[in-house]
Design a protein that fits this description.
The structure is a single chain. The protein is mainly alpha-helical. It is globular, with a radius of gyration of 16 Å. It folds into two domains: about 10-55, no CATH class; about 65-170, AhpD-like (Up-down Bundle). Helix 7 crosses helix 9 (about 145-170). The two termini are about 20 Å apart. It has helices at about 15-30, 35-40, 45-55, 65-75, 80-90, 95-105, 110-125, 130-140, 145-170.
Length: about 180
């Protein structure tokens, strides 16, 4: 087993903005998971993550699509921590077990959401250097420029957490999911 590289801070050590973020997380999901506790080694990193998370929560994309993007990104980046956490959290967005596992593999039922997931996958795999056809497919599926911008923002949020957890080797404190994509 690998040792977590960036240690999680103790909840009792939180103060200032870190304490505020921890209180928000406790109110939202009932606890403070290891990832934000490790991010708290840099309060600026923790605040950046929470700010983007909260801003996107007020966006126009559905919670379901946001969850599918998170799962697909975790699958592409082979991030077990994120796949595990989003497996639990995606249930709050209405996804069932089969839909969750399919989303980790980049497959979703709804054809419009599938266009968004394929676009998100292209953004991740091509590191943002999508081609005109990638953009045309998501546009032709009915996504507006604002919605496309939010898809990119969700991809960025999830790449941020994927990479953070891969670098930190964050101990998984969720029911563990194996990412084989």
């Amino acid at each position: 087993m690998n040792t977590q590289r960036i240690p999680s801070i103790e909840l009792s050590a939180a103060d200032g903005m870190t304490k505020l973020v921890f209180e928000k997380l406790t109110a939202r999901i009932g606890r403070v998971p290891n990832m934000p506790r490790a991010m708290a080694q840099s309060p600026a990193t923790l605040e950046a993550w929470m700010s983007l998370l909260e801003a996107l929560a007020t966006g126009v994309l559905s919670k379901r699509l946001a969850a599918e993007i998170a799962l697909a990104t975790a699958g592409i980046n082979h991030c077990q921590y994120c796949a595990s956490s989003h497996t639990v959290l995606s249930k709050f967005a209405g996804l069932n077990e089969a839909q969750i596992y399919n989303a980790i593999e980049g497959m979703v039922d709804d054809s419009k959401d599938a266009a968004a997931i394929n676009f998100a996958k292209a953004v991740v795999e091509k590191r943002g250097r999508i081609d005109d056809n990638d953009f045309k497919l998501v546009s032709d599926a009915g996504f507006t420029s604002g919605e496309i911008s939010e898809i990119v923002a969700h991809v960025v949020l999830n790449i941020f957490t994927n990479y953070f957890n891969l670098v930190a080797r964050t101990d998984i404190d969720w029911p563990q999911i194996s990412v084989t994509v």
